[in-house]
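G., the chain you wanted modeled:
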Amino acid sequence: MKLFDSHCHLDDVKFDEDRDTLIPKLHEEGVDILVSAGYSLEGTKRAIELAKKNDFIYATIGISPNDIPETKNELQEQINELKDLYKTCEKIVAVGEIGLDYHWNTENKELQKEAFIEQIKLANELNLPIQIHTRDAVMDTIEILKNNKVNKKGIFHCCPFNRELVKEGLKLDFYISFAGPTTFKNSKNAPEIINMVPDDRFLVETDSPYLSPEPFRGRRNDPRNVRYIIEKIAEVKGKTFEEIQDMAYENAKRIFSIE
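Predicted structure as tokens:
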């Protein structure tokens, strides 16, 4: 197998006990490339360190809507630090995860929007794509993307099964990334959403250690489980595992500009 996990969090505390032994196993068992995504300033630093130490790991830099600071001044300071961190590593492939979350973070929507827009500006300055987190905020997310051009486009990470989001995201030339919920038995409209996405515009990811796919739902996730998302997409699209694996691999290399 030649798997590409386009979004995971290997720096998460849930990997602290076995991270050093797990990482070689991932590569040995078919994970050819993975992207460890930043979600906070500290998480970004840890992701960068993992990328520096492991040839097959890449990193993103970003502050998620659930990790933004409390004031505009603090936000700008953190974004400036992200810019400085970018200079320390050649394996940073995106700004993310960034976006809006009105499910867990309902009290500071305006600061979330500002953080999203400012990090789009950062991505344009650094000539990087973005990885978007959006939850219960579809219309505001689309509005911001329509009004703030992203030069290198980007990815809806762990994309919600929302027809309007996927339709508008594809119009904007963004990629759609499928994660563990694609395999869930209660994801009734997953097949419809999968079929909406062209073969050259989908990615696969684990978002590990979260969102384990069937048959491991409820357990800690890891990048090896990206194969189960590939299996589901292959089933829905009527293609072989190898065909979907190769499409996802090439799509991820393209959006992240990995040779």
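The radius of gyration is 17 Å.

Shout if anything looks off.
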